[in-house]
């Protein structure tokens, strides 16, 4: 499977949250995607990411962030920065 980046997009930063507890075959995969190319409508952006993710693995849960929103003041961002893994 191959995905093309839309024309004019910069490469996003993808971060995976580390799993706490006991992962199993049904555990979801949390993926934060940080990009300056997202619109202000992050709900629609998330739907687009989910459409791509389900073609790879239906356990992937996506969360889009604009660069300016990705600050430690956000509880989820703080968690990602403490326990996440940078993928790209």
Detailed description of the structure:
This protein is of the alpha+beta class and 88 residues long. It has one domain. It has helices at 42-56, 75-83, and strands at 13-16, 29-34, 60-65, 85-86. A four-stranded mixed sheet has the order 3-2-1-4. Helix 1 (42-56) links the parallel strand 2 (29-34) and strand 3. The longest helix is centred in the middle third of the chain and has 15 residues, at 42-56. The protein is globular, with a radius of gyration of 13 Å. The two termini are 18 Å apart. The model has no long low-confidence stretch (mean pLDDT 80).
Oligomer: single chain
Q: What gyration radius follows from the Cα positions, in whole Å?
A: 13 Å
The biggest beta sheet reads: 4 strands, mixed
What structural class do the secondary elements suggest?
alpha+beta
From the N-terminal CA to the C-terminal CA, the straight-line distance is 18 Å
Instruction: Give the CA-based shape.
Output: globular
What's the helix-strand series?
Answer: EEHEHE
Number of strands: 4
Strand order, largest beta sheet = 3-2-1-4
Total helices: the number is 2
Which range best describes the helical content: under 10%, 10-25%, 25-40%, 40-55%, 55-70% or over 70%?
25-40%
pLDDT < 50 stretches = none
Question: Mean pLDDT score, rounded?
Answer: 80
Strand content: 15-25%
